[in-house]
Amino acid sequence: MTALPVTGAPPDPVLAIDIGGTKLAAALVSRDGVVLDRARTPTPRTADGDEVARALLDLVAPLVAERRPAALGVASAGPIDTAAGTVSPVNIPAWRGYPLMARIRAAVPGVPAALVGDAVAMAAGEHWRGGGTGSTALLGIVVSTGIGGGLVLRGEPYPGPTGNAGHFGHVVVDPNGPPCPCGARGCVEVLAAGPAMARWAAEQGWPGSDARELAESARAGDPIALAAFERGADALAAGIVTVAAICDLDRVVIAGGVAESGEVLFGPVRRKVAEHAHLDFVQAIRVERAVLGGDAGLVGAARFAVDLATTAA
User: Fold this and answer.
1) 182: pLDDT confidence band, cut at 50, 70 and 90?
2) Which of 10, 49, 117, 299 could be cross-linked to 94 through a Cys-Cys bond (beta carbons 3.0 to 4.6 Å apart)?
3) How far apart are the C-alpha atoms of 17 and 24, rounded to whole Å?
């Protein structure tokens, strides 16, 4: 007997990919943002860009072996070029203008696919299913070994013409500050990223080595560690107030390894935002901790894929 189609069966899930300098992650995600199946692997440390791509495709293959996804969303560290489908992540030196989307489309043919910056994906994920739910104008910030950002405006992710909108880490908050690898001086990233705060603390005599130890020292009341977080929070707050004044934000969601420090970061950030914000509409902004953790980028990439699947249906 021929099997009949199951009425009311859930739509096919989408495939989400999240690419960073430390890890490669992929997941099947339902149309309402629930992660159904996932896989991850360390990002290969190699000069061969194709080797990194092979590791990614090997990760994806088991997820799509038995179930074809309705669409595909790829979140990648940047800069990216959405029109060309290429990526040049600062933290993956093997990829410079790498034709990532061509490789992925060849491996998963016939599936609609979108490329988005990883911080834009994080913002979209937190807005859809995390700490930014209900916001109409959101800035998502990732504070880790670097600092990234993404925008949701009028309730929709805003990647910009090239996919790089919301590049928060390179907002200049101190024109006379330390030089940044991007070529500017005093960017948020060189003042508030985890390694930057730990480096500054070490220069003041703190004996630790990284941001995690710095947070532990701050929680224990170490004055240098507390001063390092205060300095980093001031840079973050100055950048937040700048973007809030331009975009009329109602919420900021902060994710990343340094955000795991908790109140030793969020306490000073909220206080510094209040100090820097003089316009009434900027003073109303809420600063929240991300709630999706390491899944934020995957969920955000899935959000873009769901939009593609809906359009293609």
Assistant:
1) confident
2) 49
3) 8
